Amino acid sequence: FAVEDIRNFSIIAHVDHGKSTLADRLLELTGTIDKTKNNKQVLDKLQVERERGITVKAQTASLFYNFEGKEYLLNLIDTPGHVDFSYEVSRSLSACQGVLLVVDANEGIQAQTVANFFLAFEAQLSVIPVINKIDLKNADPERVEKQIEKVFDIPSDDCIKISAKLGTNVEYVLQAVIERIPPPKVHRRNPLRALVFDSTFDQYRGVIANVALFDGMVSRGDKIVSAHTQKTYEVNEVGVLNPSEQPTLKLYAGQVGYLIAGMKDVTEAQIGDTLYSHKHPVEPLPGFKSAKPMVFAGMYPIDQSEYNNLKSAIEKLTLNDSSVSVHRDSSLALGAGWRLGFLGLLHMEVFNQRLEQEYNTSVILTTPTVPYKAVLSSAKLIKEYREKEITIINPAQFPDKSKVAEYLEPVVLGTIITPDEYTGKIMALCQTRRAVQKHLMFIDQNRVMLKYLFPLNEIVVDFYDSLKSLSSGYASFDYEDAGYQTAELIKMDILLNGNIVEELVTVVHKDKAYAVGKTICERLKDSLPRQLFEIAIQAAIGSKIIARETVKAYRKNVLAKCYGGDITRKMKLLKRQTEGKKKLRKIGNIEVPKDTFIKVLKTQ
Ligand code: GDP
Ligand code: MG
Fold it and tell me: Does 403 show up as a binding residue in the annotation?
């Protein structure tokens, strides 16, 4: 294929607006997959993607299309729409010259539509607006056209109205891809310059890197160098994704495909890396911002004997998802485990679900926290810690105020799109989350777009659920990283009869200390078994008690439950009690079962 006959494009949209379905139709229309089969989101290969109906990993496919007597090569990169995976979107976009921006004809522009549009706009790509689901009874494509004009400044005439489900007008989408998206700007005569935009790990073949060639060509047997690691590799295989891998003799500039070169793990094929010929070193392409974990949680095996199993499962899974950060950690109550960093809550849930489904493990996941920072107060401390700012991903390591000039917390810029009738309630909700309003705009007569600056920790756990239930499911939400801001953070201890429980140390904003302390005390009260003496549960900041609950004394006699007779039942009860004891942790003279910790620490 000549460069002029190649188009590289991506499909972006709010979740469920029909990206994957449109991709299916495009694959059929170009004969890449059979039309007769019942094709449903064929690019969603992972089990969790099929179950949740969401795309987690971007997938690539090369399509061949004959238009007005000319054969074109169209490289389609399907992307996930959820905010947690927006790094996948930006990564895909760097290999493209244009995007299809899919908007549901019934729902209209939603929060992720806006976020994704701006990613494409900033990358200076051609944007083709596609209004999907025109077959729906409540579809109102004209209204959506006007929204697109108002919010994105794209003339409404540019919109293509389709039904991806029925296949209506999908051929116009392919035509627009050819006519409105420019071919890649590349130079085939120059030495090789290839961008690694994704990589996966295959047990038998090692790392499979997805590459976009900006200059030159590459074929089997070539010696290539990674700009990132400076290691040299021999290329074993190159090919296109069709959408399954199909080896070819060469890959040329302008093409998107895959490459296998004996790299042993995905860290050797860093996303954003440039590959070049060992004979002709080149200036590396601008890389990506690496994915930054925003949500941290402790992960422990339910039973310590499962530790090694879980360890190897986490290792294998992170081979394919380099955006998860892994630190070893241990807890007196829960044993040896890890502190894992994720891009967001959905990412954390998906990772957990994959561990369970693909590796058959079961784990305890603790309440997620965000990475706080502390700016150290003296030159002496800076020398001791070897840095001026320390990042705290584990509340137990929160440095004392005497050492700190100021604490910082991560903030995000959130976009909310809602029917106007819910605006008041949503503004009130944002207020309780310490959010600052930045922008308010009507996108049509009865829909509002709000922008707020949120402290990240105020939205990680249940903001989205609250927003959805306030708005009967109609409001949508997305956010982007907005750096750090000064915050009055404090460390809160939980005490049982005056003894600090190390695993329950929490970092909170001063305005939230009372509410959080109260919740933890209540949860403890509900799950801590009564003992022979009274137990005082307290939340404290330094020496100041801010919340308190009491567990009354109880005369422990498990046999009292059985009314005489049944001896086997008594034996069983006794056995169960001794087993349970093994899992107790003593705090002072109080016996706390592991189960209590799980109930208090676990995600709601
Ligand atoms: P994605 O999250 O953007 O990839 O969306 P999917 O392609 O997974 O589609 C989400 C849901 O919308 C699925 O249930 C599809 O069957 C449905 N859907 C997609 N396109 C259409 C369409 O044109 N008409 C109708 N009625 N439903 C559609
Ligand atoms: Mg999808």
Answer: no
